[in-house]
Amino acid sequence: MLLDETFDVAALPVSDRNFEPLPAGWYDATITNAEIMATKMGTGKYIKVRYDINGPTHQGRVVFGNLNVRNPNPKAEEIGRQQLGEIMRAIGLTSLKDTDQMIGGNLSIKLDIRISEQYGNSNEVKAFRAMHGGSAPAPKPAAATTNVKASPPWIKK
């Protein structure tokens, strides 16, 4: 299909993106995307999470991680669910029904470097905690419920 203009490579901007893995360590991050995906074999599901780095260095860089939430390998599923629990505690979620609830969550992530001759070195998210090493705010207790039905507002007592 013809373009409606001619592009000259000399006139196009050069990317300054850096795809080298970040140094291992703790980084403050914001979850900017989280979506449920099927595994390659179609036998499980994982949550694909995007973390945007806020600091203390490498602001603006992006790291991805996967959380196995359903997997035929029980150990893989256990690890993924533990990690999901760590994330939820770090960002203050007491329950999760939709991955969109994770978006906007701020936390600290611990990165390691995965060495791979086949795919090149990359970052791996190894741990999660509330920002600045503290614990997330304690969830508010649920309001006490009783079996007494409240009267509609139009009924006089």
| Average predicted confidence as pLDDT | 87
Strands ordered across the widest β-sheet:
3-2-1-4-5
| Major β-sheet profile | 5 strands, antiparallel
Q: For the terminal residues, how far apart are their CA atoms? A: 75 Å
Number of helices: 1
Helix content bin: 10-25%
What is the overall shape?
Answer: globular
Radius of gyration, rounded?
Answer: 22 Å
β-strand percent reads: 25-35%
Give me the strand/helix succession.
EEEHEE
What structural class do helix, strand and pairing data support? mainly beta
* Total number of beta strands: 5
Give start-end ranges of low-pLDDT stretches: 135-148
Describe the structure.
- It is a single chain.
- By secondary structure, the protein is mainly β.
- It contains one helix and five strands.
- It has a five-stranded antiparallel β-sheet, with helices on one face.
- A hairpin with a 7-residue loop joins strand 4 and strand 5.
- The longest helix has 18 residues.
- 17% of the residues are buried.
Question: Which secondary structure elements does this structure contain, and how are they paired or packed?
Answer:
Blueprint: E1 25-38, E2 45-55, E3 62-70, H1 74-91, E4 106-114, E5 122-129
Q: Could you give a short description of this structure?
A:
By secondary structure, the protein is mainly beta. The protein has one helix spanning 74-91; strands at residues 25-38, 45-55, 62-70, 106-114, 122-129.
Notable traits:
single chain; 157 residues; 1 helix; 11% helix
